[in-house]
Specification:
- Two copies of one chain form a homodimer.
- By secondary structure, chain A is of the alpha/beta class.
- Chain A contains five helices and eleven strands; from the N terminus they run αβββαβαββββαβαββ.
- A six-stranded mixed β-sheet of chain A has the order 5-4-8-9-10-11, sandwiched between helices.
- In chain A, a hairpin with a 4-residue loop joins β6 and β7.
- In chain A, α2 packs across α3.
- The interface between A and B is large, with 41 and 41 residues.
- β3 of chain A pairs antiparallel with β5 of chain B, so a sheet runs across the interface.
């Protein structure tokens, strides 16, 4: 997605340790009009997939999922990272190691809202080592729901996540595939 | 907002301890088309307020904020509850006691994205004791930004949050004001 790559080049900040900060439009301050473009692009790629639900994980994924669901007119379900009084005990769970938080989280969804026969599109802001998507795929498979594919806004294509998810038999669509990043020279993309 | 009150009556579940679960459309599974109606209603109430930014707090507030920002065409900023590599050290912080999580969180925003002279609409899914809104107002005031008002989807009007926030000199708009709730008899609203 050219407009996304342009925006990452213009506004993204690269820090040592392969950290790409896009907190100006994606995961802190949200450019809602631009996110609608992102949602339209995911819709274009998955319009024929018979999607009945979009699954993501709190927190940054929620904005991406809602912007996309507005085109599909299907519900969003966001997996939770902690148990609250707002979620029942009757949940599916999966373990996810967070690259950004340096922790291991349990993600969970109520069984009530993820059921057999659904056709689920899984969305997230970033794909790096694939742990988050792997956890979300696990939740769907526990429920007997079919994963029609994954969509991520930014992929760190030099990590193994893309291959890992495809190895699980799941289609992956990344709107920007980062080939390399460097604090001095910035970001390059796979198809540059 | 009549359609919201109807939906709460139809789909909300009341548990002991004044817990109202609306995880079927608001804070776990998200009814995106209905959230657009909620966003339109906040826009109707604040259209003339000169809003330049919408501030909320992760996670459930994000969907409400994005749905509303789509009408205002302004950016969303969501306060974070934990420090990640995605946020700089240069932040405003405030302490917030969470009713649902039974914890005290520090919420934070990057100083870069909340600045003097902005006109901020603060949105959240629930208003109970007002702690979350109070924290978000504090972030704005530290930045020298003006809070044009708060908007909440569901208010527990039998708690002190509404009065607390108005006592800080801030307008509060609640789309549904719950007067009482009971596991047996359900929910009543202030204007029933």
């Amino acid at each position: 997605m050219q407009s996304l790559k342009d925006k990452i080049r213009r506004e993204g900040k690269v820090y040592p340790g392969n950290v790409l900060k896009v907190d100006g439009f994606l995961n802190h301050r949200i450019d809602v009009d631009f996110l609608a473009e992102i949602g339209r692009e995911f819709y274009r790629r998955y319009a024929d997939a018979g999607v009945t639900k979009i699954l993501t994980v709190e927190a940054s994924g929620i904005a991406v999922a809602c912007a996309t669901a507005a085109f599909f007119h299907v519900p969003v379900l966001f997996a939770k990272k902690s148990k609250t009084v707002n979620i029942s005990d009757d949940v599916y769970t999966a373990e996810v190691a967070s690259y950004t938080h340096k922790t291991v989280n349990t993600v969970m969804v109520s069984r009530e809202y993820l059921t057999a026969g659904e056709r689920v599109l899984i969305l997230d802001d970033f794909l790096a080592n694939g742990a988050a998507l792997q956890g979300l795929i696990s939740l769907c498979r526990q429920a007997g729901a079919e994963v029609v594919g994954c969509g991520v806004v930014i992929e760190k294509a030099f990590q193994q996540g893309h291959a890992l998810i495809e190895g699980m038999g799941v289609r992956v669509e990344s709107l920007a595939r980062v080939a390399s990043m460097d604090p001095e020279t910035g970001v390059t993309f796979l198809d540059d």
